[in-house]
Each structure stands twice: as C-alpha cells, then as structure tokens.
User: What shape does this take?
Amino acid sequence: MVACLAQPGMSAAAVDPLSGQSIHSTTADLVGIAPRRTGSVGGKAAADYVQKRFTGAGLDRVYVEEVTSYDWQASNAGLSVGDKRIDAFPVSHSFIPADGRAGVRSTGSDGRSAPVVDIGSGKVGDHDVRGKIVLFDLAFYLPTAGLLPLAEYIHDPDDTRFNPGVMLTANPYLTSLESTVRAAQAAGAVGFVGVLRDYFNSNRYHNEYYRKLAMTIPGMWVTKADGARMRALLPASGNRARIDLTVRRNAVVGRTVVGILDGKSRDTVMVQSHHDSVGPGAVEDATGTSEVIALANHYGRQVKRPGGHRRDKTLMFITFDTHFTGYQAHQAFVDKYITRRATPYNIVANATIEHVGKFARKTDFGRLVTTRLPEPKGVFENLNLGLKVATAQALARNNVRAATMLNATPFQLTETGIPTDASFVLLAGVPIVSLIAGPMYMYDDADTMDKVDRGQLRPVALFFRDVVDAIDTTPGSRIGLLP
Ligand SMILES: [Zn+2]
Assistant: This one.
C-alpha cells in the first residue's frame, strides 16, 4: 500500500485520499522535486506533478494557465569590512532594474565600497545616507498575538494562546524591509545590509518579491551574530564596507495548474494553494498543495464511483505559481476569471490552504528548535453567519489545533487585503475561507519535512471538506456576510 501511494496519478481506490499518510506522501513527493522556483526546472516539474495528480483524480478538465514572471539569480555575492569577509547572503530581488523586469546588474570586479551608516532599528530619514550603505536591524512586525483582536472563535486544545513563546513570535512575512529600502533608495543610498535580529542563526532568509517596490540597490542579509561582528569591525576600517553582487533577472513562465470538477451549475468554488517554493518548501507550500490534491482526489472519487453524484456547484482546484516572484499568476487569474469573467465559471467562494507546520522556536543562542506544538493557524473568513457557525464547528469537530477564526470582512474594503494568497480574490469581492500559518522557518532552507505537522494534515483536509460541503448547499449569492 505504501508503494502504491508513492505512484503519482495512480487510482487510489484502496487508500483514503484524505488520510494523513496519503497527504504526507504527496508532500514528500513535492519536496523531492524542490526547489520549485518559478521558471526553473523544479518549478516546471512541480506544475507537471500537480497536473498529473489532478488528471489521476478524475477531474473533468485539467489545464495550465501561463503568465510572465521574473526570476532572480545571484552570483559573486560577498560582503567585507576591510580585509575581513562577513558571512552574508544576498537579499532576494535586490539590485534589479527599476521597472522590476529583466536585466543584468553587477557591482563589477571592484565591488561597491562605501561608508556605512548604521541606523539600527531607527528611521532612514534621521540620517544622511546619500552615497552610503545602510546597515539596519530587520524587524518582524506581526506577532501571532497581534491577530487576536480579529478572533471570532478559537480551537486550541494545546493552549498555545497562553504560551508567550508562541504568541509573541512574529511571522517573517510582514517586516521593515520594504519601508527601509524604499526610504534608503529615495535618499540616495547605494546598498544595504539587513541584520536578521529577530531570526534564528541563518542568513538563508529568502524573502518574497514585495511587488510595490523594485529594490534597485544591492542588499545582503547577515545573522544577528554576524551583524554584531560587522559592527565591531567597522570603526577600524574607516566605517566602510564592500558589497559584491551580480544579479540576472529573466522573464520566465509561471504555471498555474487548474482542474475542474463539473457540478450541476457553473457557480464555482475554488480550492487553492501554491506549488512554487524557494527552498525545500515542505510546509511552504508542499503541505497546502498536497491538501488541494487530496481534496481533488476525494471529490473526484465521489463523482466517479458507482452510484456517485454530481454536486450542485462546480469545483475548481488550483495550485498557483509566482508566490515568491510577484503574484503575477494570482492577479492574472482574478482578472480573467473574476473581474472580466472571460470564462464560463461564476466564482462564488474560495478556500485557500497554506502551511500545515509545527511551531519552531529560537533559543537564546539563536538555534532553531522544532517543537511538537502546532504552529498557530489563522482562518480568515468573511462568510454569512450560518457558515461562520459551521466553520467554527468544523474546526472543533475535526480537531484543527491552535486554530483561530479571524473576521476578514473589515479587510474586504481595504486596499491591502489580508496576508494570505486569498487576498486578491477577497478584494475582488469573493467570499473566502483562508487557512494560514506564519512559522519562522517558512522562507528558509530549514523548511524541511521534519517541520510538517503530520498529525494535522488529515484534520485540515477534513475541515476543508466540511466547509466546501456546507458552501455547496448555500445559494451562490448568499455565501458571504456582505451581499
Ligand atoms: Zn504559502
């Protein structure tokens, strides 16, 4: 039976597609073809894999939507103070052309040497940074506890909400990177070094592409300890540092895999995640992709088995690309399928699944330790009152642990949306249920299989099955809280 599970696309007649074992096996397959970077061989292999699994699930139509995105490849990276090299890692998507598109940039064989201005965790505006390298402490803005004011319901048998170590750990997504670099560039800085003050002792922090800012100057990440070492070395070197970096940015193809299971009507419920990654991407987001594949198998089998029946609503299973390179796939999808409605599908609801991981904490010495606790999960939703109750009950009944239901309705009318892949769909006016977690390791090479919260894979799948089933019996125009 185990050997059977390892065969993608095989009929899984003997295996419950929503079993933890089955979902875990899919997750391992996806990690096996990592890194699944957009436009890379691994990225293409991940899209091919999902396509094969959707086809094997018996969906009625499976196809790929292509979009242009941009990769980012760094070479010759280095950081030094005087004749001492500092262990550093280039900031993803730094040193790119101002239009954010393709091009080659290089500091050349002499590197870029400049005076360093150390702003610590202060403001760029309080310093003269023209012609200088800005050294700053990266801040992570949003601890888990910061979301509690939006809480509508909590299922937390592990009492993580009373654990300060869990609740005060901030996610690595919302940070001071964008605002600091924006101000530094505007004031004429020629480079930057970000100290990963709130991070464990790794500089393999593969930040996303923050698409509202093209970082045109070169940047380097250093650990907290290497930041201290750099600061200690600077006075003896005339406060100067040198950055070396060559960046190649190419136009590449982002591949979104779409699988349709026809219902009796064209009212359509999306079930989505993203298959691209920057490193192994076990939790981020092999787990989410595996949950989507599991649900495709579950519903595909429901229709195809003897005596099976069509559901009222059409189901659309999707794994997006370009999560780390600017969300071009997500935006193109919303434009084509929702805003312009250039397809037969009337999208009435969205379920987004991201990150089923364990909580990992940083020790006083900066070591990352994986615990047995679940990483807290937020479940953003803007459903009608009846579906809210059903969602809360489904969290408890299926034992989705450390889960907090968060009211997304206030975000529907903002420009920023919510910090999940469902944001574009939410802002386009579609009701959503979006499960998200922000573990510290999610952008790091440390996001490996041991971080997957194996015991929660099945509960999350059952939760989404129950939510999708509840939505299926609700008229398409009444799913959201707001009409
Ligand atoms: Zn993700």
Residues 339 and 428 are 7 Å apart (CA to CA). Residues 1-13 have pLDDT under 50 and may be disordered. Residues 274, 284-285, 288, 323, 354-355 surround zinc ion (CB under 6 Å).
